[in-house]
Amino acid sequence: MRTSSALLLLLILVLWSSCRSDFETVESTGNLEFSRDTVFLDTIFTNLSSATHTLKVYNRSNEDIHIPKIELAQGESSAYRLNVDGLAGKSFDDIEILAKDSIYIFIESTVELQDNEQQEFLYTDAIQFSSSGHLQEVPVLTLVKDAFFLYPEKDEKGIVETIPIGTNEEGEEIEVNGFYLKEEHLNLTNEKAYVIYGYAVVPSGKTLTIDEGARIYFHANSGILVSEGATMNVNGSFSENRENPKNQVIFAGDRLGAEFQKTPGQWGTIWFKKGSFNNSMNYTTILNATVGILAEGESQDTAPLLQLKNTQIYNSGINGLRGVAARVTAENLVVNNSGQASVHLTGGSYEFKHSTLVNYWGQGFRLYPAVILENEIQTSANVQTIGLEKALFSNCIIYGNEKQELYLNQNENATFNFEFRNCLIRFEDSAGSFSNEPLYNFTNEDHYREIILNENPFFWNANENNLRLQAGSPAIDFGNISTANEVPFDILQVSRIPEPDLGAYEWKSPEE
How many CA atoms lie within 13 A of 385 on its CB side? Predict the structure, then answer.
């Protein structure tokens, strides 16, 4: 009899509790707290998804609560997507939060451009938290940019178009996703941004012209390849506003959020293949590539491969500039923050005037110096010599956050000509490890003339790629006038004459 009574009492309790929807929780009274007042998503291109952002919702009360409705103000038509407590959608009912606990809301967006909208606009919505007589909301904002999208085609089987880029050591052809630029895309303008998927190839016999103010963005494993017999001219111009250089041409990755602004290796490279010629870049900035510029030539080449003027290369996963048997001239070139060498030259002919070639890599340990010169390539099968016909550095700064920022690798079986004139170089050898290495005899005027060794150039903020000189820098007024006359204005259009400084930036007094 006692057992039957106990079972009856348990049954009554279960039935009674099942009739109360609020037995465990109470309805929110509009006193939720949030980790942000407004959710700012990263800038995105139309039709591309943003990164995922988070909003944390807190229940500071001593009671378990439920929120009758969480939804986007624009409902199912919203370009935002939510994930609330593990559930994906745009509207959610009866979401519970335990006492003194919280939940995460994950937010993404993909915005399509409407015909009547501008090339850049702010897309807004709000996440609403509704209960009886109470409404709380958190605004959500995304800056959206319109763009031209260039990408490989797919065949009827869905296979993506590829292009050959060379052969491996076994002689097998290597292909990557890519496409040949059509005639209408051989002039990239500043009308709106371009987003490139895969490698965009300039066909042989064609010239790719990029106008001042153009913005070229690359998806992962993408870049530009200039074929044999082809040319690329990048025609940026000077902009007064250093923070918004609207007339410069900028190459960067297609992730526009603040967290990606300095992430190296987001895309591939700008690749000048053997046999391309008369390529040029002026007032160009290259950001966050794996290799900023890859320039390949052949020892018998006589035509110039690449001319660089007023060009900046930052945050490269491997190299800022990689030259192999190439013919490259550079003035007012700035390279910084590379995972290996900022400038790595193997064979060929090179001339650098008033260039700042440094490496303040802060992403981890770095084995390579800022500048490497060599005349051989070692593979698993053999050593290939490539004569270094000329490597002239005049009025340059070669520095960084390691003790030795110059490496010279000479194979005696090939030409190895180099010279540094009026340069500031960091090469600390306190242990004397290189005292018997004639290549590092900085008093040998066959290779070194007027050298400042191991003195801090006093950049404004090298970690932030601000490589202007501060007052008191030993680089001030140390340049030779003959080189300065060839490059009379610095990268900011400041006159160098009559007392030129080293590097790409001329120091100005506060009065000036």
Answer: 9
